[in-house]
């Protein structure tokens, strides 16, 4: 399958959340979904030499590296490092509104500098073979999205951007925290749909506020090429990802959360034996049984036990046994 087809559904890049352990869990739930890394800055890679930030497991493919930066030359160098590390795609962050990111002049503030973004895309495009993509907002502050978004897209497409994910709300760079900027500016899905009319050959994914596969399917049926899901995929991974392969990609079967847990055990074992902490992995697994019997005991056992000395995969198995008991009790009460 081509990477553009995998992008029919993708998990959003999320700092501190979509690290390699999280992606490994998500990969147990879906073979096809395109997974994004957390944002890694080009400066950290090129000037800081922090190549460990690029480490990932081959089992995570297809996986896209998201870069943050605004220096075309440095981004090109970072893109080469990403390609050499084995990433399937290099994505540029033009959507993140945090203060730290604004001060470095990258993220959503770049919506105001489409020519610079185009230079960044062109430099990365020239440097690597893998697709170069952009994740953006519909605008920032007092920009008129109706005007600026098509112009922005035209420029980055001309520069060689092969796919775009549009978070369907503005970022307000003054006065809102990054968290508020993910909820308060209103969503404008019709605008994103109109972009598909203006750019019929551009692969466009919609992002923002999508919380079910039914919603995702509706966007695809309405003509968009892809749907990117962030928080819902993280908090309720089973609801969003376990049925993606059959429902969205027309292949494979629905995965049971229990099977995903079993599939994670060798990975957990390897991590802990190598000196890693169990909690670094299990913190991403807390929502696996959300909305199902046993959710509470699962969450509690992992939260309380994973940080104890010598905690390992046996704790995860014990928690799973408790979940099974709760589920059996729930069945008997039906
Ligand atoms: C904890 C967290 C961290 C995020 N970090 C990034 C990031 O590094 N890069 C980025 O482009 N967007 C980032 N985002 C935004 C998401 O990628 C996504 O655009 C946003 O959450 C809206 O999608 P959703 O409603 O499906 O969550 C982050 C979101 C969250 C919740």
UniProtKB/TrEMBL annotation:
The record marks 93, 179, 182, 296, 299 as: Interacts with tRNA. It catalyses: 5,6-dihydrouridine(20) in tRNA + NAD(+) = uridine(20) in tRNA + NADH + H(+); 5,6-dihydrouridine(20a) in tRNA + NADP(+) = uridine(20a) in tRNA + NADPH + H(+); 5,6-dihydrouridine(20) in tRNA + NADP(+) = uridine(20) in tRNA + NADPH + H(+); 5,6-dihydrouridine(20a) in tRNA + NAD(+) = uridine(20a) in tRNA + NADH + H(+). FMN binds at residues 13-15, 66, 135, 167, 207-209, 230-231. The keyword tRNA-binding applies. Its EC number is 1.3.1.91. Keywords: Flavoprotein, FMN, NADP, Oxidoreductase, RNA-binding, tRNA processing, tRNA-binding. GO terms for molecular function: flavin adenine dinucleotide binding; FMN binding; tRNA binding; tRNA-dihydrouridine20 synthase activity; tRNA-dihydrouridine20a synthase activity. The active site is at residue 96. Residues 11-316 form the DUS-like FMN-binding domain. Pfam families: Dus. InterPro entries: Aldolase_TIM (IPR013785), DUS-like_FMN-bd (IPR035587), DusA (IPR004653), tRNA_hU_synthase_CS (IPR018517). Its cofactor is FMN. NCBIfam families: PRK11815.1 (NF008774), yjbN (TIGR00742). Catalyzes the synthesis of 5,6-dihydrouridine (D), a modified base found in the D-loop of most tRNAs, via the reduction of the C5-C6 double bond in target uridines. Specifically modifies U20 and U20a in tRNAs. Belongs to the Dus family. DusA subfamily. This is tRNA-dihydrouridine(20/20a) synthase. It comes from Roseobacter litoralis (strain ATCC 49566 / DSM 6996 / JCM 21268 / NBRC 15278 / OCh 149).
